């Protein structure tokens, strides 16, 4: 039996990982957030507006997350301010998995000849090559 990718819906943990992956890539693309930087303090505010489709139901979720570390200088000196906004467009589950570095469920046979589903990781950018 040849391996065959399965087009299973995304699990909640996969949605979370896809969102975090996009945020991680956005933050890493900022030239001020590199390994050679050192900051006495930071603060962040992140808003997430999420639309999902689950078993015929349209689910909306809105989150606002704040994080900080250290104390802002009393004089209010601002060394660097970064703002970013991006959208994640709807895509087939396996395309999301490949684009965010997650394993794609694949039906194959184990050494005893039993059908098993295993996760196969594909190189990012190859989402269109994965057949569902």
Could you name the key traits of this structure?
132 residues; alpha+beta; three-stranded antiparallel beta sheet; two-stranded antiparallel sheet; 2 helices; 5 strands; elongated
Topology record:
Layout: E1 4-5, H1 12-28, E2 42-54, E3 57-69, H2 93-99, E4 104-109, E5 115-120
Antiparallel strand pairs: 1-4, 2-3, 4-5
Total beta strands: 5
Question: What can be said about the biggest beta sheet?
Answer: 3 strands, antiparallel
> Strand share of the residues?
25-35%
Q: Fraction of residues in helices?
A: 10-25%
Radius of gyration using CA atoms only: 20 Å
H and E order = EHEEHEE
How many helical stretches?
A: 2
Q: End-to-end distance, in Å?
A: 16 Å
Lateral strand order in the biggest sheet: 1-4-5
- The total tally of domains equals 1
Low-confidence stretches: none
Average of per-residue pLDDT values? 86
Structural class: alpha+beta
Shape field: elongated
